[in-house]
Please model this.
Amino acid sequence: MKLLIVEDSPSVRRVIRSIVATLADEVYECEDGAEALTAYVAHKPDWVLMDIAMKNVNGITATKLITDQYPDAKIIIVTNFDETDLRESALQAGACGYVLKENLFELRRLLQDI
Model:
């Protein structure tokens, strides 16, 4: 499995990578939604693990950019925000999952169940 982690915090990227490392053959990273589409095109990951709050382009916008061009893209939002409106916006943008950073092992379970 190939994964793309889109997260602005290097320390959070390291934690996510360590949690999913044994599930993935390849893990790619970028630090902003502005880089996500380019990284998606370059690496064609099986899954994108997308933060919401990032400096230039947020994760919901980046999710929409990717899924507009690649409708089969599988994106899981990984965030600190547990608001209903953000969950709905993420799903409308094309995300197929939503995991809170406080429950990162849930992310591992989701990926294993696939």
In short: The mean pLDDT is 95. The first strand starts at residue 2 and ends at 6. Residues 2-97 form a domain with the Rossmann fold fold (CATH 3.40.50.2300).
